[in-house]
Specification:
Layout lengths: L5 H16 L7 H10 L10 H5 L7 H15 L10 E2 L14 H11 L8 H5 L2 H13 L15 H15 L8 E4 L2 H12 L5 E7 L4 H8 L3 E6 L10 H13 L3 E8 L11 H14 L2 E5 L16 H7 L9 E6 L13 E6 L3 H13 L5 H11 L9 H27 L4 E2 L8 E2 L2 E2 L3 H9 L4 H13 L1 E2 L1 E2 L12 E4 L7 H19 L2
Parallel strand pairs: 1-12, 3-4, 3-5, 5-6, 6-7
Antiparallel strand pairs: 2-8, 7-8, 9-11, 10-14, 13-14
The chain binds ligand DCS.
Ligand DCS binds next to helix 9.
Length: about 525
Amino acid sequence: MRRFASGGAKRVVGLLQKSLSSSSFLASSSSFSSSVMERTPITVDTINPKVIKCEYAVRGEIVTHAQRLQQELKTNPKSLPFDEILYCNIGNPQSLGQQPITFFREVLALCDHPCLLEKDETHGLFSSDAIARAWQILDQIPGRATGAYSHSQGIKGLRDAIAEGIAARDGFPCNSDDIFLTDGASPAVHMMMQLLIRSQKDGILCPIPQYPLYSASIALHGGTLVPYYLDEASGWGLEVSELKQQIENARSKGITVRALVVINPGNPTGQVLAEQNQREVVDFCKNEGLVLLADEVYQENIYVDDKKFNSFKKVSRSMGYGEEDIALVSFQSVSKGYYGECGKRGGYMEVTGFSASVREQIYKVASVNLCSNISGQILASLVMNPPKVGDESFDSYSAEKDGILSSLARRAKMLEDAFNCLEGVTCNKAEGAMYLFPRIRLPQKAMEAADAAKTAPDAFYARRLLEATGIVVVPGSGFGQVPGTWHFRCTILPQEDKIPTVVSKLTEFHKAFMAEFRD
Ligand code: DCS
């Protein structure tokens, strides 16, 4: 056993004393025995209240009800007025039949089972560039083993590939040391909230409506969500005047606003920000000293010709701002885009504009989780560095990608048009992302019925829709909305041949609902 020299031993004892005196260690055996004697039972009243406060409607009450109905359909298929549950509540493309990109899966399969690379048949079954890529990736993985832990920030060679992809996308350099690979974007968002929120006095500016990961994560970390409202009338526009008003309002209540969340393209709202608007946002963050948390997971999901994705990093660098001017975190995920590999849990955050000592702390937190899963890491490198012109897979890869994205664009349009034909419903265009967020104006009698059922009007509508058609949507209240307005979120993900059925079921239900509750 290695022995410490006496100076080293003293240092270790000092360190131990320091950590023992901190709150995470019990101070003495007597306090231990008294706390055991108190025996606080574990109930919802005694667990961490932050857990109780946290809500996540994308998998909330309506979805639980849908799962019950699905079970009922299994045991008694004729008991309900529909024969299947259609999950339009969650952006989970492959669960509704979207096929994975062949090249990505070939590389993953070869990396996970490298002895395939030694077999002759493999060359007939897999494309040559998938084989080459798998070799290249395996060479970057210590021990060539996808079953081994990696560096806590992610495998260096994969981060290099991602950094190259980002640089090619933006036209500005990217350093692979700025990349932290994560199990999807969600843990990355949690990590940043954990870093930024010290107490309830710390606020995070979030869009309303927002994707409830943000409200949930802020609640879990004990901070305050400072809302800024997107303007539905201008296609969910982001007004800097609104940001200014809300930050002043929060400050007047003693809140220290630390960061601004922007989801671009938007979830649940589907808008794609114009570059000029992004510039204003960057200037706002720079002037107010806010970290810009840019959720860019839908960067490949753009369906209109007049809009294009610009990363906030590209926009801020093109304004001449460097690391010293603005702290910026960009989140990306393998769950979205045309790849939709939600279950593989891959993603990354690109962290720029923080000091080396803060970065070390981020690294430390990442290291507590050891590393993100390796298949997710490999996929993140593939989505940021897909086949190029001249590669054997390029044509089939491009056809698969274009097929998925053009179909999503058509589905978005068909559903948008259908919603806009319904009495009392208006629906902004989905310029990007995977959702429509129609506004519903309900008759007074429906509002009263919701009240009697002790539920929000949009939740009442969503429940009735589910019970009549099997279609699962998420009530707008799960995302936040201007008080007194009601919405629901519906994904554009059912397969294209199913959309006409979805439209006719929705239309029929809506007509019957309005007839039942007409004032
Ligand atoms: N950010 C946004 C804007 C999202 O929409 C999602 C997932 C995430 C981050 C996190 O995804 P991953 O952890 O899988 O990378 N979207 C959810 C949604 O609204 N429906 O499905 C999941």
